[in-house]
Amino acid sequence: IHGGFLSGIGGIVLYTAAAARSRRMAPVMLMTLVSSVFATFINPYGIKLWQHLIQALTLPRDIIEWLPMPLWDLDAFTGFRLLLLLALVMVAAGWRENRDRSLPSLAVLAVTACLAVRYRRHAPFFGLAAAAFLGPYLDGAICRIRKSVSGRRLKNIRIMPIVFAIYVMIA
Question: What is the pLDDT of residue 113?
Answer without folding.
Answer: 94
